[in-house]
Design brief:
Blueprint lengths: L2 H14 L23 E6 L16 H13 L4 E5 L18 H22 L4 E7 L1 H14 L10 E7 L60 E4 L14 H10 L7 H26 L1 E4 L2 E4 L5 H9 L8 H20 L1 H21 L7 H6 L3 H6 L8 H14 L5
Parallel strand pairs: 1-2, 1-3, 3-4, 4-5
Antiparallel strand pairs: 6-7
């Protein structure tokens, strides 16, 4: 495999093997804002391998820079911008990215974004805020937007003019361009503006099937209509197929792993998989096996595939010592009941477990479908071609229109 192809595959892994973010303690730092208070300030969060903790926050580079630079040119004096410097890593596996696991890197981006937004809000109380994120950066910005929409973010929703996400691993299933607003073509206006310029922006990109590889199904609350989520057909990061549970499980585990070298990768992945399987088994024992006198039934409230995915997701609480102890006691009770009355217990239980196995196979049927593999044959290009494929044009037009509306003028 030549070097170019190696880098492309590495970038794809970073773009599609994505998982939930973990909250970590990171020293406070942010992109320098400068002294100018414009009508609109845009924060950019780059994708995997496109930033670093020492990156210049004023350099228009990468996919996000390809969107923001035209906005500066089209709305001179009305817009300022800064890019969030962060590790942009995937466990050391991607050229240009840091050594931190993906989940730690995304949490770092979110922390630094919050700090920068707070600084701007204090320094420029009359400046509206927008944010643009790509790939790993989109997941950080999506997390930021969800919290603000729920009233728990660093600034009130009224300060947010617009949020543009590209190749977002948190994209909800078959989401339209404006999540929660199927059929909407133009963004909602920035708070306090007429929206005249924004009303002239049309975003008619078709909704890609599937969902983000790390999707958890939450919305944007009061920011709905001001968040746009762009996903290219065939981009596995934001359009992962349905019925591919093991792919999502593997993505979440890989996103927490140390991938700096083959030995570290094997050890890290094995440990994470073992822990996830153990936590899933504990949850299944406590919630899906039911004991009555002389009988054991497996009656899951959540499919086994989802139990496995949830166990690998650091956004969800893991079973503690008390739960593990209770699960061990439950297992002892199950085996004792089976041993005491096997003829009455085993046939029904085998049938129930067989049905669960069939459901697990069905939840992974896409992995055996050749049509799915054909659909994602060009996923590297789909994930990396947002700038050259024209998908940034409407986002740039939107940010420009926001600036003009905030200035009280028109384009």
């Amino acid at each position: 495999m030549n070097r170019t192809r190696h880098r492309a595959v590495a970038a794809l892994v970073a773009g599609v093997c994505l998982a939930a973010v973990a909250v970590v303690s990171i020293p406070a730092s942010a992109a320098p804002i400068g002294s100018e208070c414009a009508r609109l300030h845009i924060f950019g969060v780059q994708g995997t391998g496109q930033s670093s903790p020492t990156a210049d926050p004023s350099t228009d580079s990468g996919v996000v820079g390809a969107l923001i630079a035209p906005v500066l040119a089209a709305a001179p004096g009305l817009v300022t911008r800064s890019y969030i410097p962060y590790s942009a890593g995937f466990g050391g596996a991607v050229p240009g990215g840091g050594a931190a696991p993906y989940t730690v890197s995304v949490a770092e981006a979110r922390h630094r974004l919050d700090t920068a937004v707070n600084q701007l809000a204090d320094m420029c109380p009359g400046t509206a805020i927008a944010a643009v994120g790509y790939s790993q950066g989109a997941q950080a910005v999506s997390w930021f937007a969800r919290d603000i929409g729920a009233g728990s973010g660093p600034v009130p929703a009224e300060r947010i003019a617009g949020i543009a996400l590209y190749a977002n691993p948190d994209r909800t299933h078959s989401s339209p361009v404006f999540p929660g607003r199927p059929g909407q073509l133009s963004p909602d206006p920035a708070p306090g503006t007429s929206g005249e310029a924004v009303a002239g922006v049309q975003m008619s990109a078709p909704a890609a099937p599937g969902s983000g590889i790390a999707e958890r199904g939450t919305g944007y609350g009061t920011l709905t209509g001001r968040v746009a989520d762009f996903c290219a057909e065939g981009d596995l990061a934001c359009s992962a197929p349905d019925r591919a549970a093991l792919l999502r499980l593997g993505a979440e585990i890989a996103a927490r792993a140390d991938l700096r070298d083959p030995l570290a990768a094997v050890n890290s992945l094995a440990a994470l998989l073992s822990a996830a399987l153990g936590d899933a088994w504990t949850t299944v024992l406590l919630n899906d096996f039911h004991l009555t006198p002389g009988r054991v039934d497996y009656q899951p409230t959540v499919p086994l595939a989802q139990r496995l995915i949830d166990a690998a997701d650091p956004r969800l609480p893991t079973p503690g010592p008390a739960e593990h102890t209770a699960a061990s006691a439950r297992w002892n009770a199950i085996t004792a009941t089976v041993a005491t009355n096997p003829l009455n217990v085993v046939p029904a239980l085998v049938g129930q477990l067989g049905a669960a196995w069939g459901q697990l196979l069905d939840d992974n049927a896409a992995l055996l479908d050749p049509a799915v593999w054909v659909r994602f044959a060009g996923t590297v290009a789909a994930h990396t071609d947002y700038a050259t494929g024209g998908l940034l044009v409407s986002g740039a037009a939107w940010m420009t229109a926001l600036a003009h509306d905030l200035a009280g003028g028109s384009l």
